[in-house]
């Protein structure tokens, strides 16, 4: 990373308070401790000094996204990721990870975000049966689902479709609350707009995406249904055993009217919620029909004070173990992987494509 730090570009402009990393933060990154996390399109690193360095705003830093320039086939795609994360950060939300700066060198692009040290929900769900001897109780799933509802509501108010909601992209803070991360597939579609891009993760794709139809914000509510189902069962509802063709077949069956399968112990309220979120018709899907207000008023969320959720006033059902400094013990380790190699050289014209980054 050392050679990459000389060409840092502030994110929002130097006249915006806290808009860029200060010189001390640069020093922290120069002394960076790296642990690689597998990402869809780029490696993910934590970047802290041995004391768990914080910038002048008190944010624990990490540099989680480092796409190489030769891998960025759609320049607009990575520029959009930066701009949409910037919008989410500027408007601010407790359940969306903050983007603190961006920079680039001759071969890589870097997005620097807050370090969320509790790990991701995928690992949390994987380890849950060993921790409590069972899958997640409904009251715990309700607590986590409410935070995702608020995060998606916030993005949708800005016309942003997230388009890749899954446990791997949901991080847990040391306070036990969640933050949504990885905006690689996010897109500004507007309140009633649509797009036809085929993207996302197979187990969480809405029927309109699988069928390559135009789609909009409603795809996120389908994915939320998949995630809630997974919180409760340990598996997404259309799990294809790592075979996307199987997953698409199951989603198509649902689109044609196939009933969802529920374990007998699940309450009628959560079954109704999931039937509404996993509604094949996006216009009738919970979160769209009646808006977010109707979703938040669903009986499964009864008794939940949404203001207390957003202010983090509830006692979480679980808190990660306290750590010291640059602890990454809550994340899977990828330090055995080889560092990035860059046996190529970009032309001046190529570099100009990234001048907005």
UniProtKB/TrEMBL annotation:
GO terms for cellular component: cAMP-dependent protein kinase complex. Residues 30-301 form the Protein kinase domain. GO terms for molecular function: ATP binding; cAMP-dependent protein kinase activity. InterPro entries: AGC-kinase_C (IPR000961), Kinase-like_dom_sf (IPR011009), Prot_kinase_dom (IPR000719), Ser/Thr_kinase_AS (IPR008271). Residues 302-357 form the AGC-kinase C-terminal domain. It holds the Pfam family Pkinase. PROSITE patterns: AGC_KINASE_CTER (PS51285), PROTEIN_KINASE_DOM (PS50011), PROTEIN_KINASE_ST (PS00108). Keywords: ATP-binding, Kinase, Nucleotide-binding, Phosphoprotein, Serine/threonine-protein kinase, Transferase. It comes from the Eukaryota. PANTHER family: CAMP-DEPENDENT PROTEIN KINASE CATALYTIC SUBUNIT PRKX, CYCLIC NUCLEOTIDE-DEPENDENT PROTEIN KINASE. This is Protein kinase domain-containing protein. It comes from Haematococcus lacustris (Green alga).
